[in-house]
Every structure is written in C-alpha cells, then in structure tokens.
Amino acid sequence: MSSSQSAADPEHESDAAESSPGHGYLLDNARMEAGERFTWLAQLFDGVTLGHLDRLGMKAGWRCWEVGAGGPSIPEALAKAVGPTGYVLATDINPTWLDPDSGYEVRRHDIVADPPPQPGTFDLVHARLLLVHVPDRARALATMVAALRPGGWLLIEDADTELQPLACLDEVGPAQRRANRLRRAVRELMTRRGADMRYGRTLPHALRTAGLVDVTASGSFPVGGLACDRLESATVRMVRTELLAAGLADDAQVDDHLAAIEAGELDLTLAPLISAWGRRPA
Questions:
Q1: What's the angle, vertex CA 39, arms to CA 37 and CA 41, rounded to 5?
Q2: CA gap 234, 155 in Å, rounded
Q3: Beta-sheet pairing, 273-279 with 148-159
Q4: What is the pLDDT of residues 31-75, one digit of tens each?
C-alpha cells in the first residue's frame, strides 16, 4: 500500500498496507478513509517521488515494481513514463485501491513473506512510506534488491517522526497544543504496533548494508496547506476508535481538533520524508 505513513505524519500515512502478525496495520487500506489519505499523500509527495525517478533516468521501456503501492497515482505515473514497451507491477498486501485497467499489473504480495516477483529483472523498484511499518525491514529490503537487474535502482522513501515530532511547529494557543498532544498519541499507537519512528534516518546505511552502491539521500518537509489539513483529518477519523480505546484521547479532544482543522485554525505539518536511492552493482 501507497508505498501498500502521529495524526498525519507520513510514516503513519503509509501508502502500504503491509501488516505483521500480532500487530495489525493501524491505517488499513480496507477502511473508508484510506482513499482520502491516498489522494492527499499523492498531492504532497508524488512530485518529490517523480522528481527523484526523473533524476535516476526513468524512461520508456523500463521495468518497474511499485511495492506496497496503496493508491494508484504512482503506478499510473510509472506506466505513463515507461510506455507500451515498458512494464509496471504494483503490489500490495491489500490492493483494493489499485486499478489493473490503468496500464499496470496488480498483484497481491507480502513483501516480508513472499519471494520477489521476477527476480533480477527490474530497472526500478520503489516503495514509499512502507518499511516503517514492516516488522522485518532487512528482509523486505533484501527481497526488493533481489528483484533488481544488475545496475537497477532501488528508491526507498520513509519518514522520521523523531526528527520533527510536532503537528504544529508554532504552539501559539490551545488548539495547536491539542494538535501536538494528539500527534503524540497517534505516535504512541504506531509504536505499539511495531512502527519505527526513527527509520527514515537509517535509510542510507540500510541501502549500503543491503549491497547497493552509489547511495544518496535527501529530505522533504511539507508545512501547511489544504493537503496537510485533509490528510490530518482523514487520519484522525480513521484512528479515533483506537485512540479512545487506548485512553490516549477523548471524544471532546478529537471533535475539537477536527473542528479546528475544518476552520483553518492550524498550520499543520508532517515529519520529514527521507528519500534514499542506490544501484545494484553491475
């Protein structure tokens, strides 16, 4: 799930619906709000992702694997870029939101439990906001590396909430303080489900350890705007029941926070998205 990622941190708005036994993915693709989240994640991050892919030289004829795709926006963009001579495979543990009639193949796949499809054949493998939720991240990375052809590129994008844990950078009043309390509460839920709040910063080392060369990384940090607001609202509504059951928030706090978002009172932000890429040695 897209890339199968705090109350609107990218890591908690994971494109991927990859789950782990005994944990369960908090932001399940099957939930009603998942489609909303994918729409706003695409607005926030597709430009970042596609910019990196352009710099990596993506072109007609490439074979691409989108891992944990979640929403359809990146698979559709890949299919357009590689054209009829290329090939795009979009996988997710729950491919509900993917469209097999949009120029790419859709397949149900668990990046931890299943072997790589078509090993050694892909020019590009990409996952966004996925591995932070995956219990065996090293194994998942190894599966993706095994799918690359010699010289093929792996692009992994994940968040690091501990680098910037706030929903509102400027705590000018009670609405902003409440937003930050709820962000901490959702981070706590994610931690209990096995998410790694520091994973984004580890990506360059993780890619080198997986055997890739020419490893490079960069960060993106959206602040404010309609997409951040709508992503926050969809996510808080999605996890409301879990927040209440865990005693991390009450109905009044959630209602007041949603009302403040709707009224445009908050300058909401996200954790940094760390993008790292490397090449399988030729």
A1: 65
A2: 27
A3: antiparallel
A4: 777 778 999 999 999 999 999 999 999 999 999 999 999 999 999
Superfamily of domain 10-272: Vaccinia Virus protein VP39 (3.40.50.150)
Contacts of 11 (CB under 8 A, 6+ apart): 5, 129, 132, 133, 158, 159, 160, 161, 190, 195, 197, 199, 200, 271
What are the C-alpha distances in Å from 104 to residues 74, 115, 173?
10, 20, 47
Distance between CA atoms of residues 213 and 151, nearest Å: 9
Whole-angstrom distance between the N-terminal and C-terminal Cα of the chain? 30
pLDDT tens-place string over residues 234-261: 999 999 999 999 999 999 999 999 999 9
pLDDT value at 198 more than 80 = yes
Domain positions in the chain are 10-272
Question: What's the pTM?
Answer: 0.89
Rounded distance, CA 47 to CA 169, Å? 23
